[in-house]
Amino acid sequence: MTEGTHGIERLRDKTSLKEVLEVATHFEESARDFYTVLIPKVSKRIRYLVEELATEEQAHFDLFSALAQRADIAAQVREEIQRTASDSRFSDCIHLPDLGDQPDDQAVLQYAMGREHAAMTHYGELANTAPAGPIRDLFAYLASEETRHKLELEKLYYETIHRGGGV
User: Fold this and answer.
1) N or C terminus: fewer CB in 10 A for the chain?
2) How many CA atoms lie within 13 A of 153 on its CB side?
3) Does residue 167 sit within a domain?
């Protein structure tokens, strides 16, 4: 490998915080839209959950949007950071599945758990690699939020699918 090629490889492994925030904003927006469209299609047993997920994704979208407008972080947004190991999996979650007109509870819960896991992992890695400041604080907060969501979904999944109980 030549020195020039090695330098190019190092650059491919970097991304700007601006790009990270743009992808994360799109991730939250697509999740909000996905869950909003699902609300009238899911069973009444989990409708409240899908409504809550749509609301929470909107709140995350609002956080990213507000952060992008702050003049006091303009320099930090231009900084480059190492791409996370979870970067491609997180980006893949922007592409949404078609669960049909009457998705079953199990499919909805499995998808939501996978999405929350991807977000939890990605935001956690970003919290560990972003420079200290408001962006790192946001990623740490979101990692904690997504972890809580994932645990709640796993509990509901167990109660609904494995025990066959009502929600």
Assistant:
1) N
2) 25
3) no
